[in-house]
User: What shape does this take?
Amino acid sequence: MPTQPTTKYRKLPVEVEAITFEELVDYGLQNCGKNIVNGMPWSFDYKGHRITHENDNCYLIPTLEGTMRFDRGDFLITGVENEIYPCKPDIFKKTYELLPTTNNLEGWGRLEDKVQHLLESFESFDVLFYKTKIIQFISSIRKHDMVELIKISELQLSPLMRKQLIKEYYENN
Assistant: This one.
């Protein structure tokens, strides 16, 4: 039997927004006016899409593939073209990770995990040099230092410019 040619692809790293069922309910309560039944928003617009109440554990979400269920425990993702779609929690956890920001730094675990995540976000430059340098100082890194590094990672700069900023930061601190 002849083998069929295959070509492998890697999913591009894109940033998406996601909210939980409870966050969508809170949003609906704040934005649906008086259209509330049994404490649940009945129908409302979210990012330009009409959300409708199916029952107290499900909303109906208009997606590019048609109407889909958004159940308690799921995540509602806003994609790169402002499309929305529900995602089951097990798939979400395998596909997405929380991006480091100065706002969510407190919720992260060990400092080493924060540094590792930050390093992984700088794929295109000499990670080994910076990883070694960071590990050398890991026990003395203060929260302020981590916040400064994350601020650098959030800037919309070329990888070369980010590399230079981090290098200057370590040389000056």
User: Anything to note?
Assistant: Residues 17-95 form one domain. Residues 37 and 130 are 55 Å apart (CA to CA). The chain has six helices and nine strands. The chain has a mean pLDDT of 76.
